[in-house]
Amino acid sequence: MANAIIYLDPDSELNLQAQIRQKLVDAIVLGTFPEGERLPSSRKLADQLGVARNTVVLAYQQLIDEGYLISRERSGLYVNEKVRENHANFTSAAQPVRELTATWRRRFKGLLTTDQAFAFPHNWQQYPYPFLEGQFDHSLYPVREWREASRLALGVREINEWAGETGDLDDPMLIEQIRTKILPRRGIQARPEEILITVGTQQALHLVVELLVDSSVPVAVEEPGYPGMRRLLAQRGAPLVYQPVDEQGMVVDEKLDDCQIICVTPSHQTPTAVTMSMERREALLARARAQDSLIIEDDYEFESNYLTHPHPALRSIDTDDRVIYVSCLSKVLAPGLRLGFMVAAPEIINEARKLRHLMVRHPPLNNQRTAAFFLSLGHYDTFLMHLYQTFEERWIALRRALNYYMLFYVEMAPAQGGSSLWVRGPEDLDVKYVAEQAAKRGILIEPVDHYYATSNAPKNCFRMGITSIPHERIRDGVLQLRELFHDLTKNKTETFENASGEHLTGQRLKDALEGNTMISIIAYGDPCTIEICPDGLLVGKAGYASEDLDQGKWWIENERWHRQWSRWAWGEVGIYDVRLDGDVIKLFDEDGWLIDRYVAQKEETE
Amino acid sequence: MANAIIYLDPDSELNLQAQIRQKLVDAIVLGTFPEGERLPSSRKLADQLGVARNTVVLAYQQLIDEGYLISRERSGLYVNEKVRENHANFTSAAQPVRELTATWRRRFKGLLTTDQAFAFPHNWQQYPYPFLEGQFDHSLYPVREWREASRLALGVREINEWAGETGDLDDPMLIEQIRTKILPRRGIQARPEEILITVGTQQALHLVVELLVDSSVPVAVEEPGYPGMRRLLAQRGAPLVYQPVDEQGMVVDEKLDDCQIICVTPSHQTPTAVTMSMERREALLARARAQDSLIIEDDYEFESNYLTHPHPALRSIDTDDRVIYVSCLSKVLAPGLRLGFMVAAPEIINEARKLRHLMVRHPPLNNQRTAAFFLSLGHYDTFLMHLYQTFEERWIALRRALNYYMLFYVEMAPAQGGSSLWVRGPEDLDVKYVAEQAAKRGILIEPVDHYYATSNAPKNCFRMGITSIPHERIRDGVLQLRELFHDLTKNKTETFENASGEHLTGQRLKDALEGNTMISIIAYGDPCTIEICPDGLLVGKAGYASEDLDQGKWWIENERWHRQWSRWAWGEVGIYDVRLDGDVIKLFDEDGWLIDRYVAQKEETE
């Protein structure tokens, strides 16, 4: 026996003894270690593997205890033949070629269309600028806290509670935690019998659709909207009414009156991230009440309005149990966990529970108990606070960078938060092409046509998400994206060379700026004014209520305008060539690209 | 502040610091601790709770780090108001009374019938004799090994692999483990694209039914059979053909020819536990091939034929991909985990995967990875070996006890293993009543009418399972059950007092026994002979091939026959009054109950 019967993996997280045991079990069960042959002595195997003899002795002992090996006196260790006996007719012959008859392929019921969901490249983590939404960011995962909760859920007393057959019941501890720690954040008060745990938000939606929708039930969906919901509804043959989305969220009008069910994503509309206004929410509830429709409120994301206070959920202002609220724990924590929940009238929960029992019994109870501990220890709250801060920082950074670098290419849909921005590019932009080109430069952005069911998908819109890109890469990613836009629009973009207007220098430059107020519209739709005070001070005000203020200084050097804000534009010195075109002042950066365009207004006091 | 703001739970598994933190978070989030009020000093709280001051200091510090508390210089600790600000419009007002309008209740689609699944009492663990099947027995759960696998799956490298959005993919490591460690036990070879992980067996069945069945597809099911499958098929409106079950498993005859799908539980038929013979398996496959039907093989239980070798799965002898094999990991390990899988033609797996994606995306990936480690470390094999031994012991014990104590009340269906016995009582038995009465005496047995869809359910059959009752309680449980049967049939049962036949004593007794061979049929249908040798030796042979042999001794004392086997009847001394009725010898125990009935045959040599 010249070769070792097993080899160890130096990168394994298992200790040596566990590895030896694992590999021997493999060899025994798969039959690669011949029956009847004696195992190498512990000394010999230890030598071959380069490990301490005791390590092998302990692994062998464990395998004897467990019945894999038997020790024959004065002869050594052998594979226990009973281990393989229990493997029915294990044949090592190649598998026969089998083929499902063609008839059968035609017999599939309700074959799903090939309308595949949009997917980012599997290796997206290798892209330097992944502007994605909803992907897991491992740097945010609360490893230590989740391990603690998991360890607690594996206590013997706990195992007793979750391991058995519970029929159709959920973990009462998790229900209680959701009821007292999560729902109050959304203004929702619920009794335990109004809550059902689901295998992710998707199962909650599936159950509701199975329960309430068939081909006789017209359903309103948002357009653009969540494709996973549309597909569920299409499977049931429901007639769909596509309701447009404006800056207040889904439009509420008479088209809703035919709909028995209205599906809506009020906190951040999927995919535009627009928050539904309070007036709109009231209007929606009123119309639903008048027509006796039900509302499915998909609150898929954690609460994250960075610019205003959070709005309460629709369900919290619903006085007649008309809203079915659907959300999840795992989307932000770890999508792989698949833990969602729904809150609705007890009658609906009761029926959904029966359906769930028929389909999957219940979501795994060990995960329910782990999540319950995670919540009860306050870790979920802590995690959300951390996430909120992180995403807020990233979201604001993305918004600023787009505003600064891509002002003349893009507009952003009005949003108060969320984890993505809906961006509209120039009219003639072909986003599919741009997204492909961007990917070649390491930038991932999301085309949006899969959010549209009708043929109205704009060709020039895309989404940029912030759940996966580190804060420090955002600015550079946007800069790279601008370079791409520049390259793609080379002959159409205004540069210092080809721009109209007089190149200001000397006193002309000083006069055009000093004492003026410059007015512009920034890329997210808010107005912005900059006062250029004679004493070298800059005062900037952005937003309708001037809620974003900054100060800075300016000076002229080498015939160029220099300015430096304390916060804006990352507090860095900006150096610009200036052209005056009518009453419009144009700023060009050192590469000749147009950076900003202002209407200049002389201060009245002058 | 005379009272403590929180109280500690002496039974909690959390350490004191974690408990203090958890309870304070609760108080803060729920608003029970008034805003603006100062928290008690660490010294004061430590005094109130009776813990070391440092414990409170550390808990406070953690809450400050996490942003729950803020420290105001020279003033103390306060609740950070921002924590509660993030909870939208939390109102403490009582919840409004809401009611789902009556119209809506009528609009539920495909309302599930109230035909509720049979359920054991929730507190079954408090019954001394729970003869149940499929319930979790915590004494068998491999706590240490599962914890180890769980810990490994929570390694940072692992989390990265399972936590994210994987689309519709399963954990490749689990697929590989199932392929190489579980399926070969059943004789099945499968490629990765032939395997799909599901949320328990139930989801596998649901997906197959959704994919292949509608109201135009006749389906054969076993009668009696698994109610969960019938309900799924009924939901799709499938015409059902009820196929009876005999001692070789489901009957294969021309009634199957109309069926496009045949649902079967070959390894142990649900609920009778009969194993389908190899001839029957071949016949089933041949008939399915002739009619181009598909077969759904539900192999819900782990392999456990105690009396014979395991039969290979139908799928392993299926040469044209006609069998969809469904099984699970969690049923025997911990039903609460909900981990099943299916093996089928890649086209079927592919469509089922799309459906699964629409319904739940995928089963939780942390559990998939944990199970993968559990398998790869050999723990699952070890666990099954342990389970096999445990259940074998219990199963044989139950069979023996029924045979010994209840010979005149019951027959058992022929079974080679499994985790329950199908028992037929006297013709006039009303099992519902008996089960109720048994429960009052601490014995749980399972009525069987819920396994029948037709009105043919026998009133006198029941099931006794062994997955939850400790070995040492089985005999006593059966004895208690016999007492119940005695009480219920008081005037109908033969006792020493009322039996016909001559009471043998003295020389008459000796002559009737000595040198005779006594022949009987035991309760599981096998013949049994006992030679009563003149030298005081007993030789017992049971089974058609006399595979169960034992020896013992006999003597007469106080006009009673005494006998003691070395293994049979627990090796205990049995003392019997004897009556001779024609050529039938009847034995009565000391309480006067009939214990055995033999036909006596003089040895020919005599």
Give your account of this protein's structure.
The structure is a homodimer. Chain A has about 600 residues and is α+β, with helices and mostly antiparallel strands. The first copy, chain A, folds into four domains: about 1-85, Arc Repressor Mutant, subunit A; about 170-375, Type I PLP-dependent aspartate aminotransferase-like (Major domain) (Aspartate Aminotransferase, domain 2, 3-Layer(aba) Sandwich); about 385-490, Aspartate Aminotransferase, domain 1; about 500-600, Lipocalin. Helices cover about 35% and strands about 20% of the residues of chain A. In chain A, strand 23 and strand 24 form a beta hairpin. Chain A starts with 15 loop residues before the first helix and ends with a strand. In chain A, about 45% of the residues are buried. The model of chain A is unreliable at about 90-95 (pLDDT under 50).
Notable characteristics:
homodimer; 20% strand; Aspartate Aminotransferase, domain 2; 4 domains; eight-stranded mixed β-sheet; 606 residues; Arc Repressor Mutant, subunit A; alpha+beta
CATH C-level name of the largest domain in chain A: Alpha Beta
How many domain units of chain A?
4
| Proportion in β-strands of chain A | 15-25%
**Percentage of residues assigned to helices of chain A:** 25-40%
- Estimated radius of gyration of chain A: 31 Å
Quaternary assembly: homodimer
Identify the most extensive interface between protein chains: A-B, 131 and 131 residues
What about the largest sheet of chain A?
A: 8 strands, mixed
What distance separates the N and C termini of chain A? 99 Å
Query: Based on CA inertia axes, which overall geometry of chain A fits?
Result: globular
The strand line-up of the biggest sheet of chain A is 4-11-10-9-8-5-6-7
* Mean pLDDT figure of chain A: 87
